[in-house]
Amino acid sequence: MSSVNVKKDYLERIVPALEKEFNYTSVMQVPRLKKIVINQGLGIATGDKKVIETAINELTAITGQKAVPTLSKKDISNFKVRKKMPIGVRVTLRREKMYEFLERLIRIALPRIRDFKGIESKLDGQGNYTLGITEQIIFPEINIDTVQRISGMNITFVTSAKTDEEGYALLKQFGLPFKNAK
Fold this sequence. Notes:
Strand order of the largest sheet: 2-3-1-5-4
Distance between the termini: 28 Å
Largest sheet: 5 strands, antiparallel
Number of strands: 5
Shape: globular
Number of helices: 4
């Protein structure tokens, strides 16, 4: 299945299902996935500059899009952080790359997690969902032999849903394996 099929599935199966479930009068009311943001906080990078480069390369390999460093906004002496110092990396995926990543996450990466029983079903109040992943090695693009450090990441699904209920229904239709179905 390719990203084209995921988008086609959204248009042909998910939209009518959500339209029926929430009694929308227009197709434009149906929530859609706007973007997926993958973020890695690397506080450890204050001591070692190579950590950021490695993280950028890994995240670029996982998503197929160039990752950018996130910079600190102010000095924090207790953490040895200076203003504009790289302290993490992130990627924002939209359109085809977003659907491609979503499919690989659901079909390949999540099932590779040890003792996987599903993901939490807590949204943020505006219909968006953030999934925390503890190990980047669940993605097949990462060569385990070359990994120096195991690092986690947050994957945020930004939807156009007005409520958590609509956002949950949309992500469930896409195939995100939630633990306790509402």
